[in-house]
């Protein structure tokens, strides 16, 4: 019986050694160690042995089974390792290959112009203030010297949500709110960029939603000449050091006196061309000295404090600066348009 076991052991170990895949090993396991396998058969026949022989043969049978089991386990792990190595070889990465280029985007032209304007005013000591786009009638109109039924409200056809709530038609309410927070103490020196809304039919130069940047300075002894100096610095930095500015009288309910500012044409230098409509001047923004009523409503003593304010449309600034002929280009996200503003 021991000889038989010995032969089975050698036969199984040889087959295990020669097996080339996991399936073959599984078959060997079943055929030698399974319930119907030869070793089980030998063990079943042990009853016929003498009591002296039984433990010896039993121990040997167990030894044979253990030897086959560990040979199987060893071969299985060898084959599994070989599979992993084969896979690693096939999937190896050539780290010396050049990388795929990362496609870089660019800022939207309107964002770029707004940030350029913000940076410019930040260097002059202004801070950037923001506020809600859904506003109350009070902050959008009344606090800016535009009481209900004031005829100047007609200039800003509005989207009302309720009788008292609307989409802001200008960013001026941000200034009114900021002044209130100062509790009548200056200085206030802010710019407020943001979206505004007016009921309008969209065309090449009109949009029901557009951007505004307004500025406000309130302090003791603020004069029209301060306004002129700040705006001249802005115009030269934005459109070239050779630019001249001129102020023309105008009307806004929140400022008195009010002005409109033109810059000398950057295309023709003032001689007259299609950009400046042959006048030599291009209108850039509106401005003025803050109306005493507006100061008082926001809690400032108008005998002690004065201020100036200005407002501009960044779309118009960008259109002039880059020769863009249709305001709708800013909002329709055509990549052929947007990609032209990629910086080198
Ligand atoms: C407060 C007091 C005064 C803001 C001002 C303008 C003149 C102006 C328009 C230009 C073109 C807006 O983009 S646009 O439609 N704005 O001309 N805005 S003064 O005056 C203020 C603001 C807030 C408390």
From TrEMBL:
It holds the Pfam family Phe_tRNA-synt_N. It is an enzyme of class 6 (ligase). Mg(2+) binds at residue 256. One of its GO terms (biological process) is phenylalanyl-tRNA aminoacylation. Its cofactor is Mg(2+). It catalyses: tRNA(Phe) + L-phenylalanine + ATP = L-phenylalanyl-tRNA(Phe) + AMP + diphosphate + H(+). It is found in: Cytoplasm. Residues 111-320 form the Aminoacyl-transfer RNA synthetases class-II family profile domain. Gene3D superfamilies: Bira Bifunctional Protein, Domain 2. Tetramer of two alpha and two beta subunits. This is Phenylalanine--tRNA ligase alpha subunit. It comes from Fictibacillus enclensis. The lineage of its organism: Bacteria, Bacillati, Bacillota, Bacilli, Bacillales.
